[in-house]
Amino acid sequence: MEYSEIMVRYGELSTKGKNRRNFIDRLAYNVRKNLHQFPELVVKAHRDRMHIQLHGEDSQAVMDSLKRVFGIQNFSPSIKVERDMEAVKETALKMVKEQFFDGMTFKINTRRSDHDFEYDTNQINDFLGGYILKNIPKIKVKMKEPDLRLRVEVRKNGIFLSSQTIDGAGGMPVGTAGKGMMMLSGGIDSPVAAYLAMKRGVEIEMVHFFSPPYTSEQALNKAKELTAKLAPYAGHIKFIEVPFTEIQETVKHDVPSGYLMTVQRRFMLRIAALLAQKRNGLAIFNGESLGQVASQTLESMLAINDVTPMPVLRPVVSMDKNEIIKIAQQIDTFDLSIKPFEDCCTIFAPPSPKTKPRLDRARDYEARLDIDSLIEHAMAGIKVSEIKGGETFLNQQAEEFAELL
Ligand code: ATP
Ligand code: MG
Fold first, then answer.
1. Crossing angle, helix 371-380 and helix 260-278, to 10 degrees?
2. Most buried residue, 3, 43, 371, 404, by CB count within 10 Å?
3. How far is CA 28 from CA 72, 98, 115, in A?
4. Is the shortest distance between the CB of 300 and ligand 1 below 6 Å?
5. Ligand 1 pocket, 269 CB below 6 A?
6. Which CATH superfamily is 179-401 part of?
C-alpha cells in the first residue's frame, strides 16, 4: 500500500509531566536527524502523537531507520483519506483484503480528535465493520485480541487508516539525560553498555585507549567501526582516541605485576573523568560485569573507582554473559566484537592479576609514578572525530593496501 504518513506513539516520556514538551521536542529533533537521508519527510510533533508525513519517501526504509530512535513506543504506517465515508470504506476494505487469511478475525477501532465530524465512533465502527463483513465472507469480528486491528482516526485534515502497529526502540530520547563518557574497548560488553546508556537518554562520547605499536591500527579501527554500528541510535557519536602506550609501559616497568591491571585502570578512569570535566560530561559508563574477569570484582571496582568522585555507571553489571551476547547480536555488534584484534588491556594483562586488590596498595604503588605528567602527555595526544552510522573503518585499510599492489 502507498502510505502517506507514519504515526508515532511516544514511550515512557508520556508520563513525564512538565518536562514533556522538552522530551517531545528532543524526540522530534532526533527523528529529523536520524531520518535526514529522506529529504521529503515532514515531522510534526504534537502532545500525544508524532506524525511523519512521507511525501513519497519509501515507507519501509523510513520505518527501518525509525526503529532505532529511542523514546518511541510503537508506530503505524497510515493512509490518509478524504473525510468522505465512501472513500474510507474502500480503503479500509483494500487494507484488510491485503492481509486477509482464512479464518482471520478483525476489529475496527475508531478515534475522533475532531468531534465535529458528522458520525461518531460507534457509527463509524459499525459502518466500516459491516462493509468489510459483507465483502469478505469468511472474515469474523472479534473484540478481544483480533488478528487484525484496523485503526481509524478522524482528524480535521483527513481520516487516517492503519492496520499495523510496529514496536519502536523504547527508552528515552537520546540527549534528554545529559552527556556521559563511554569507555569503549573492542570487546563484547562495552558496546552493549553504550547501547543501554543511550536507551536511557544519555548522549555518549566514546573514549578509547590504544597502545601503538603493541596494538594494531585494526584494533583502533574496530573500536571506530563499533561506534559506527551504534551511531544510528544517536545520529552520530564523537570518538575520542587516547594514546596509552607511555602509561602502560611505565606502569609495567614500575608497578608489581599483581597490581598492573588495577593501576592501569586507575589511569584510564582518571583520563575519562578529566575528559568528562572538559566536555560537560556528567558520568562515566563502562562495560564491567560483576565477576566476569579478574578486574571485575567489587574489591577491584573500589580500588579503581577511588580516583574520581564522578559516577561510574555499569549498565551490564548484573547481566550474565549470555544475556549480554543476546543484546550484542540484536544490535549487530557481536560479529565485530569477536574479531581477534588485540586490545591494549589484553596485551598488557599480567599473568595473575589480583582479583581482590587492596586500595592502600594500589595508591602506594601508583605514588611511585609521575601521574600528572603521564596524564598530561596522554591528553596532549588525544584525537576527536565524529562517526556516523554505517561508516566503515576495518575494510578501508585492506582496500588501500590492495590498491598499492
Ligand atoms: P569489554 O567486552 O567491554 O571489553 P571485558 O569484559 O573484556 O569488557 P575488560 O577488558 O576488563 O572487560 O574491560 C572492562 C571495561 O573497561 C570495558 O568494558 C570498557 O568499558 C573498559 N575498557 C577496557 N579496555 C578499554 C580500552 N582500550 N579503551 C576504553 N575502555 C576500555
Ligand atoms: Mg575487553
1. 60
2. 3
3. 11, 32, 27
4. no
5. no
6. HUPs (3.40.50.620)
Q: How far is the CA of 382 from the centre of ligand 1 (A)?
A: 18
What is the CA(288)–ligand 2 centre distance, in A? 9
Cα 351 to ligand 1 centre (Å): 17
**DSSP of 141-171:** E-SSS-SEEEEEEEETTEEEEE---EEEEES
Q: What atom in ligand 1 is closest to the CA of residue 346?
A: 10
Banded model confidence at residue 400, pLDDT cuts 50, 70, 90? low
Residue with C-alpha cell 566536555? 279
Q: Tell me: the pLDDT tens digits for 265-274?
A: 999 999 999 9
Q: Where are the domains of the chain?
A: 5-167, 179-401
Q: Give me the pLDDT at residue 235, please.
A: 87
Fold classified for 5-167: VC0802-like (3.30.2130)
**pLDDT interval class at 291 (50, 70, 90):** confident
Ligand nearest to the CA of 349: 1
The reply to whether ligand 1 has any atom less than 6 angstroms from the CB of 220 is no
**CA distances to 195, 201, 229, 232 from 226, in Å:** 11, 19, 5, 11
Our answer on whether the CB atom of 184 is closer than 6 Å to any ligand 1 atom is yes
* Minimum-distance ligand 1 atom for the alpha carbon of 183: 30
| Residue 261 identity (one-letter amino acid) | M
Ligand 1 pocket test target in 182, 190, 208 with most atoms within 8 Å of CB: 190
Q: How many CA atoms lie within 13 A of 264 on its CB side?
A: 29
- State whether the beta carbon of 345 lies less than 6 angstroms from ligand 1: yes
Per-residue exposure over 220-237, b if at least 16 CB sit within 10 Å of its own CB, e if not: bbbbbbbbbbbbbbbbeb
Are domains 5-167 and 179-401 of this chain identical in fold? no
pTM: 0.90
**Alpha-carbon separation of residue 87 from 3, 82, 93 (angstroms):** 15, 7, 10
Terminal-to-terminal C-alpha distance of the chain: 50
Whether residue 125 contacts residue 85, with contact meaning beta carbons closer than 8 Å, is answered with no
